[in-house]
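Our platform keeps sequence and structure together, in a single record for each protein. Such a record has a labelled line for the sequence and another for the backbone structure tokens. The tokens are whole numbers drawn from a learned vocabulary of local backbone shapes. The remainder of this section carries one protein's record, kept here as part of the documentation:
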Amino acid sequence: MVRLRSIAAASIIAITIGGSAFAALSPKYADWAKGPVQWLMTRDDWRAWNNIKSDEDAQAFIDLFWARRDPTPGTYINEYRDNFDWRVEYADKNYKSDHGKRGALTEVGRVFILLGPPKNAGTTGAQSMHASGQFSGLGGGATGFSDTGQLSAKLEWEYDRPADLGLTGNIFFIQDETSHEFHYDPQRANVGGAIATAIKRAIHNPELTAFPDWAKVPKMERIVETVSVPVATEHVEEPAPTPGVATVKRAGKTIETIVSPAGAPGAHDLSLIGDSRSIRPQSETIAFEGVVKKSSFTKKDDIAFMFQFCRPAVDNVKSTLKFAILLSGKVGKENVDIEVPEDETVAEPLKTMPGCSIVRGAIPAASLEAGSYMFTIRVTDPATSQSYNLAQEFKIE
């Protein structure tokens, strides 16, 4: 039986951890380190996790774990975690094994999660696989193995700048003749070294020993204004908003209208969406392919949002912006304003739109009652002191 393996020491430690230390943990936490996050964990992480005794301690560990890997300390948006979650989702969808192992836990999924998508990939020896092509067309590239029982398939990945990842060449995955799973060839490309480098590079804030305040999602302050509602003697219909025009309201009164054509300098094109992690700013062709715009949410949802920030004279915009959010709505007979305090974020350059970046984030809907609302975000560019108001209507059902 051919079985090629190159397992990092951290993975070996993971296998030898006993279950007794986690007896008091709920399933939500007891199984956390068994998922794809295990690929990121260092020896120190495993030692600390092995000493966890309660759900509270587990949550504190997880919060600190991700804060130490936040590339933009000072903001609660963690771009690394968002990207990690997207890679896990893609791996689960495309690299599931014949025997049902989730894609993110296969060796192909592990390399994809830690090193990112390849520039090109090709397969040989398995008819159900794509012969070659760009990464975006691979779909089920590591699934649908033949039933010949022979070592007949190889998967080759080429990265654009392999040396930057610690690779010495293309990665080759070889199909196991018995399990039909793919394992990278440890004798080629220095995959093990690249994985170790990726784990180390992921830690941006090693000095953190506790979950910092700046990484916490801001709590929303609820401001309720009770107003009397007179008996209507005549029904008056409000005109529908003009396309391209956003209306900003507070306490039920219009305070501003904004007209922002797409592509204009500054902040514009606010959209409420299902999942901000589906955006891939650095993709050359599919930056917004998985984005679903929404106008209705439930209390269990996160209200995800995105908008563009452009400086046409600049090719690569990576600006730090300040923003504050106001959710203004009507619940029954009450006008309700909910404010999110001002915070900072970093605009992510869009590869397909030189001079423009994307800003994305999410806030929980749990504090909102069923009703109609206006999502208003005030964006300030500290470099110019210029502010922009963007608004979008939505409902909580």
In short: Residues 9-201 form one domain.
